[in-house]
Amino acid sequence: MTTLQVWLRGEHLGEVEQLRTGRARLRFSGAAVNQWGEGSRPLSLSLPVTSSRVEGAQLDVFLDGLLPEGALRAQLENEYGTRTPFELLSRIGRECAGAVQFTLDDSRPGPGSLRALNDDEVTALVRDLPTLTPPDGLPIGASLGGVQSKLLLTRTPDGWAWPADGAISTHIIKPQSLDPSSPELLVAAEHWAMQVAAAAGVPVATTELHEFDGRQAIVVERYDRVDGERIHQEDFTQALSVHSLSKYESTLAGTTRLRSIAALATPNARDPRGFASRLFEAVAFNTLIGNGDAHSKNYSLTIDSAALVDVAPLYDVAPVMFLGRFHHAGHAVAQQTDLRYITRRHLVDEGQSWGMRSTDMAAMLDDLIGRVSDAIGALDAPAELTSVVEQVAARVRRFSRDTAG
Predict the structure, then answer these.
(1) DSSP character for 378?
(2) Which of 68, 269, 291, 341 has the fewest CB within 10 Å, making it most exposed?
(3) Is 293 a catalytic residue?
(4) In 3D, which of 298, 280, 264 has the Cα closest to residue 334?
(5) Domain definitions of the chain by residue range
């Protein structure tokens, strides 16, 4: 039976084996149980440390959530001949989101290696997405969740490099989609929205815009890679054991994901009140900006070495409701999922359901509205985004008057 060794920040955490059914079973090491204690959650909020074996939906969803979706997932499964998340992680699990790594042997993961890329090679890699053809026949050895076509590279003082053998990647390159149904301004609009967040003081990943042989792409600096070290994180689907296929919340499910995250994470947060405030700010910003793609894979939590959590910086933020695409808020906000009908009252009520005071929520929202409005006014936007910027600005003003967004 094949067994994968599980590592967290380079320290042995346990091992995962694949059962005959194809499902996985995790056993935390005795050292991990002693270090963190029963019930602690250094790997995932959905997988508390225990001396018993762990198997079931929580583990399966966590592992699957580390892997890409869509065309790249299909390409990897075809190339490696894999059919389960366990089998695919045995091939590309040495470089995953967060600080978790998987190896086939019990040797501590090494630093890996980097293969320097020239400009033409980088351009070709970006141009050919969603097909990914590594240089020199190198294997695809890094994994990142999500359905959008993307490229994981490492930025060095000498330029871009291909990470191999578990080497740390530092940036994500996401080009404009070749799908004709995808909004043609999506990449530019995402970069602008991320700049607005940064200017407004909302924690957000750092981005740049580049063109590769005429194909525009957003280059995102990974917040879970700092000074050559891995920072652990998981997205909300993993924390709540929600399959990626159900990343958009439905009010028909009878669950309330944001309230569930607040209830689950707050007792495990270093700063419980600060956690709730930062979660509210993130949800409110996505609502104000008109982000119709703020689903459960586009929010994440960081988990530190003491197994304490916080809200991760925002990423994948774009005003897609004004690009003719989606009106779904991703999560229910006080039982409303349509961005067109969410008001400040919904936001305040949602925060109040987490145990926060409505007066505090209203004050926080007013402060955020002011910061976002100032940021929009101060930033120069490309001419092609003029209409989008005007619509977002008008939406922000409407929220300040307590009417529908």
Answers:
(1) H
(2) 341
(3) yes
(4) 280
(5) 3-103, 113-225, 231-400
In the chain, what are the helix, strand and coil shares in percent, each to the nearest 5? 40, 20, 40
CATH 2.60.40 for domain 231-400: no
* Cα–Cα distance, 331 to 237 (Å, whole number): 12
Per-residue confidence of the chain (405 residues) as pLDDT tens digits?
A: 689 999 999 999 999 999 988 899 999 999 999 999 999 999 999 999 999 999 999 999 999 999 988 878 888 888 888 889 999 999 999 999 999 999 999 999 999 999 999 999 999 999 988 888 888 888 887 777 766 788 999 999 999 999 999 999 999 999 998 877 778 899 999 999 999 999 999 999 999 999 998 899 999 999 999 999 999 999 999 999 999 989 999 877 667 999 999 999 999 999 999 999 999 999 999 999 999 999 999 999 999 999 999 999 999 999 999 998 689 999 999 999 999 999 999 999 999 999 999 999 999 999 999 999 999 999 999 999 999 999 999 999 999 876 444
In 176-271, beta strands by DSSP E = 207-212, 215-221, 225-226, 229-230, 233-235
SS3 212: strand
223, 205 Cβ separation under 8 angstroms: yes
Q: Cβ atoms within 10 A of the Cβ of 344, count?
A: 23
SS3 state of residue 226: strand
Q: Phi then psi for 141, rounded to 5 degrees?
A: -120, 15
DSSP single-letter state for residue 93 = T
* pTM higher than 0.85: yes
List the catalytic residue out of 60, 64, 224, 293: 293
- What tokens does 140 get? 């695809």
Structure tokens at 225: 């890679």
